[in-house]
């Protein structure tokens, strides 16, 4: 029976809009009945009332008949009754203002104002009763139309104006107003008319009126204006209910709790709090003891939504808005709750799941129960929130969490290993959803390009991050496919950096003892050394070939692996770094240079170098590191040899006439050692004598070998005795040579000038200057004039110093002794650097000479060329590329022009001159 | 058929090998050629021989070079600068480069379009030769032409009969390539 009602209603409405009410009234009831006949169901449904109708008609004629004409008593009565009913029902045109003013009251006062509560007079009541019995539909239909008319005339403009005002809580005001309007329209109906109808039909009639009301409301308030307002309202409350606001305020809370004003909060959705609780407490944390604020917000929201639903603004569209808001809320919550929470072991997914189940889903269920799709509310087919939906939200939540982690991934990696929890979360994410892996690598690669692979980052930093990436991604994806993808751009970039090898090798050779400390050294990858000792035995087992038929644990490559993907079973940081370079040669060469520097130094033992070398041999094989091995062997051999040679010397009785000092030598096999950049000079005669004697002894021992002395390498222990002070320290050979030149028998302090010394020692002036300044810093020499130094036999007292300064000493007039020495030391350093630079420049010049040959060849054969073309050709022709910039080349070429080897012809082309 | 081919090319066993090589992977070949030429260039630059010089052209693939020979002293070519072009085949050094005089030259073994008659550029070519050895050979050819197989018969005759007239012809024919 129920199902027939809406059908009927729909029909009637169509009729109502086609025929004016007047014409309808003109039809005799018999017509009216006939018109209904095609609707069989209606016949059936009204069957029970038709008998009632028949006899009630006659009785009502009797009662009202007295006041009506007898001509057509039936129609007359009907008209009169309708007239009365209309008068009773019609709403006074009082306008929106009144409605607005009463929006916050309970409404009874207002209803009185609008004259909606006064009971109908006896006559009207009878008329109503009559109409209810004869043709209730026409009356309701008329009233529905009247509601629309009235609403449009009285409220619409007011509402639109209100809508434009954009006040706070605007939608609530509107809903309040509309609710009042609804009551105005429906109060008399509910109070005085519905009781007259059979209870089974009441719903249908009411629904008809409500629908009329809803249509006009929706018409007057376009949805596109309402939806942002609704979204705002929903967001406001949802933020509180879901606990997102408390997360954002966490910082403030912490501060407040210092004042002791913040109470213990049993209820919290904060991940931080949750982590600290026991598992049992965790289970209850989000279920029980809801905050007062949250409860209020929830009640408020539900009440508001109730109103919304009542006035016809709920339904499908409201659901869409709600879904949108909840979507945003989930993202917000995850961002607020988990950003920066990277501790391991990570329980964020569990926390998130619990939150979704207990807080999120709860709100959704509550809200959806109110704004279901059927606006009339007669058939409450509320959308069921099934368990599968919750499951879907959970998956979504995990995906969002993964997304958050991906966006944080760079910082996570930088913080490694303190941030391993975040990687665990991410791992869940990449395992859960397809495409996530691609997303991770894609996003992270972009991030890397922006944040790491730029000139501002030092090579050590990049390598450190790379190492962290290797470790983090190994946990994320043990098969190494993701790492493989991520690492490619980094590796490509690192290959382009000049100092990559140097950093790696020096890291390997660093003292592992310092690496274990908590302080990460800024300019050294000392952890590499520790790593080397840690994992070396893994690598041996790892180097199995692809075709190992005994490998029972063989697995095919993962599907998304790159074609040249290579499996590595362990996190071998060293291997990844060393394999950066196409050949081991580059690496070994750098290793040689660094090793050479370290071996030349005077030390008790070289155990650490030996260890590192042995470990590296395991990786590279003996042959690759042969040169390094020879170097180490040289050092240990020469110690033994040195001992023998010295014994021989003692035996041959040379010792007593030595007098100048002892000479120890390190014998290096030139072929296996890298080139040393050094500045040759003449050592003192006494040393040369010693060297000669040493060489003869050596050559006696080792036939067919010759000693070549590298004077610039090595250390000298110098003892100086001056008039009132002494000095003993280890210095470089050239510093010692320079101070030796100041030695004199006379009591007068020796004074030498730099040009003098340069000629005598065959040393470059900058180097001499550097050495002299070094001695000035040790307070052995003073610079009397520019480039003239004198031995400081007597340390000046304070007074002397001032006197000296007063006399216009050349050296910087600093106030204190310490400052003076410090200055001199700094100057010495600078001078040494200058000397080093000079030798480097000489080396660069040497290199340029090769290029000069190319340029000559080019210009001879190809004719005059412009600078750009020369550079281009050099880049093509010179093996290893052309390392100089255009500007450097231009300078060099103009130097050649001034030397008369080139000339510039028309258009800036360089031409060779023969 | 293979045998017969081998017979006819007995004098140049490298050519056979070159054919094999060129058939197997043109690309890697070009790479090895480039490598070889780069090495030759480097050698040429690091230990330059007096009077000869060569450098790749600007086309970037190193397969065509320009060389310069200064005429040796006590020859009719003394003081002259002679330019040559080298075009290296893809299977260099298994085949000889094509060498031409760019500068017009009056010489018994060079024709008027610059083609050279020199055994090591033809059937006597071997992979151990290189740009610098070819240039040195050409330099010595300037002083000691091979009059037994002349391309320019008049020049050959003149070389034997009248050195002064020969030199006049040389200078008349010579014309410095204007450096463009």
Automatic annotation (TrEMBL), chain A:
Residues 528-776 form the Cullin family profile domain. One of its GO terms (biological process) is metaphase/anaphase transition of mitotic cell cycle. Residues 43-73, 800-820 are annotated as: Disordered. Keywords: Cell cycle, Cell division, Mitosis, Ubl conjugation pathway. Residues 43-70 have a biased composition (Polar residues). InterPro entries: ANAPC2, ANAPC2_C, Cullin-like_AB, Cullin_homology, Cullin_homology_sf, TPR_ANAPC2, WH-like_DNA-bd_sf, WH_DNA-bd_sf. GO terms for cellular component: anaphase-promoting complex. Belongs to the cullin family. This is Anaphase-promoting complex subunit 2. It comes from Penicillium vulpinum.
UniProtKB/TrEMBL annotation, chain B:
SMART domains: UBCc (SM00212). It is an enzyme of class 2 (transferase). Transmembrane segments: none annotated. Residues 1-33 are annotated as: Disordered. Its EC number is 2.3.2.23. Pfam families: UQ_con. The active site is at 117 (glycyl thioester intermediate). It comes from the Eukaryota. The keyword Nucleotide-binding applies. InterPro entries: Ub_conjugating_enzyme, UBC, UBQ-conjugating_AS, UBQ-conjugating_enzyme/RWD. GO terms for molecular function: ATP binding; ubiquitin conjugating enzyme activity. Residues 32-179 form the UBC core domain. Keywords: ATP-binding, Nucleotide-binding, Transferase, Ubl conjugation pathway. PROSITE patterns: UBC_1, UBC_2. Belongs to the ubiquitin-conjugating enzyme family. This is Ubiquitin-conjugating enzyme E2 2. The lineage of its organism: Eukaryota, Fungi, Dikarya, Ascomycota, Pezizomycotina.
